[in-house]
Amino acid sequence: MKTLPLIVRTTLAAALLPAGVISLRAADDGDAEIKALREQIRLLDERLHQLEQKQQLKEQEAAAAAKAAPKVSLTDKGYTFASGDGANSVSIRGLVQFDSRLFFNDGGVVNNAFVLRRARLISEGTFNKLYSFQFVSEFGGTGAPGILDANLGVALSKAVQFKFGKFKAPVGLELLQSDSWTFFDERSLVTNLVPNRDLGAQLGGSLQDGVITYAVGIFNGVADGASSGNTDFDNEKDVIGRLYVQPFKAVKDSPLQGLAFGVAGSLGREKTASAVTGGYKTDGQQTFFKYRSTVVADGQVWRVSPQAEYRRGPFGAIGEYVLSTVNVRPTAAGAKAELQNQAWQLAAGYVLTGENSSSSGVTPRQPFNWENGTWGAWEIAVRYADLRVDGQAFPLFADPATNAREAEAVGLGLSWYLSKTVRTTLDYYQTRFTNPVPLSSTQILRQSEKALITRFQVAF
């Protein structure tokens, strides 16, 4: 190929030069715009990342604030204030029981009455999931308003729990169950022979996921059926212990899963008249035995109580026996004698509407509602109980003309659970007395006690 003339090459170069410059400029401008766009995208991405971090931080702060915020709830378990993490809580609960007592063929004894059996304000709390307290005040009953329970707890674990203050002594099976949810309005004759509330220090807990529960403690010591005051003025103390076993609790679907049994007892020394029972009472709360006013306790006192319970579906039953031993003198200078009083009971209940029987009450599947035509839960119950006073008590320590040596009681009950908190009951009791002499001078002992007790209860 021949070389183009110089003039032609020069002309072509002159013509193409502007186009090349334009092309280079266009390329440079495109690269700059891309770089600018990329920079804008990078800045937007950083900004978006910052916004996401801020949002996450706000959400975390909101979650932490919600978690820490106190919670207030009102349920069938009372009015509860709790910290957000659940470590601290205070509950306020209440119990009101209004009774009607009607006695048949009572020989003219005026005992028919309306009774405010219990009116309690209950406060309980937990702090740091470790410490707890309970305070129960009583405004009902026959005495002046007072403090029933006031105690502190320290729960190191389920197996190691300490309790200090005033609370129920761990002896009687039925007594340890809530006043709100026993089969009958009144506890059986057996409860006459066990200590009620006492001042002391207790170690207790549960082992093997609740298969075994135990309690052992040192208490001031009180007489049969009595409760402690807020002080004690002697050096004598009682040691009380209880072991309770549910061997089949973890065996699912076993017919024996709800079986439990155990033994409880107390041992100590007591002196003075305050250590002698203030009297044994019937289901109708009439006194059928009381020591002479001059009798004093002086020496060893001990109790033993084997006990058992069975729950399966709507059926429930409890049984217990108590032997109570006390050393007494007819007067401060009289000869000492050891008396052994004993009692036992067997009670059973069946929930007609099919809900589960429980020592903590029956929860209706369908609470009572007139408009919806639902009627709550219904339970029937039956009980037999017997209490025998040591024959040596007569006539030196107790007047045979005014006291019964034995009481045998049969009870029939019907309970209507309108809801978890509202219950009404209708109980009939018949108690037969065995007297040391053929005819007692005490009117209530001349014939069997026949009592009809109805109760309207709100417990939350």
Give me the CATH architecture of the largest domain, please.
Beta Barrel
Q: Which geometry do the CA atoms define?
A: elongated
Number of domains: 2
Which percent range describes the beta-strand content?
over 45%
Radius of gyration: 38 Å
Coarse structural class: mainly beta
Describe the structure.
With 460 residues, the chain is mainly beta. It is built from two helices and 20 strands. It folds into two domains: 1-66; 98-115 and 182-459, Beta Barrel (Porin). The strands form two sheets. Strands 3-4-5-6-7-8-9-10-11-14-15-16-17-18-19-20 form a 16-stranded antiparallel beta barrel. It is elongated. It starts with 5 loop residues before the first helix and ends with a strand. The mean pLDDT is 91.
Tags for this model:
elongated; Porin; mainly beta; 20 strands; single chain; two-stranded antiparallel ribbon; 460 residues; 2 domains
Short description:
By secondary structure, this protein is mainly β.
Task: Itemize the secondary structure elements and their pairings.
Blueprint: H1 6-68, E1 71-75, E2 78-82, E3 89-104, E4 113-127, E5 131-138, E6 146-155, E7 161-168, H2 173-176, E8 197-207, E9 212-219, E10 238-245, E11 259-272, E12 280-281, E13 287-289, E14 296-312, E15 315-329, E16 337-351, E17 377-388, E18 406-417, E19 422-434, E20 449-459
Antiparallel strand pairs: 1-2, 2-3, 3-4, 3-20, 4-5, 5-6, 6-7, 7-8, 8-9, 9-10, 10-11, 11-14, 12-13, 14-15, 15-16, 16-17, 17-18, 18-19, 19-20
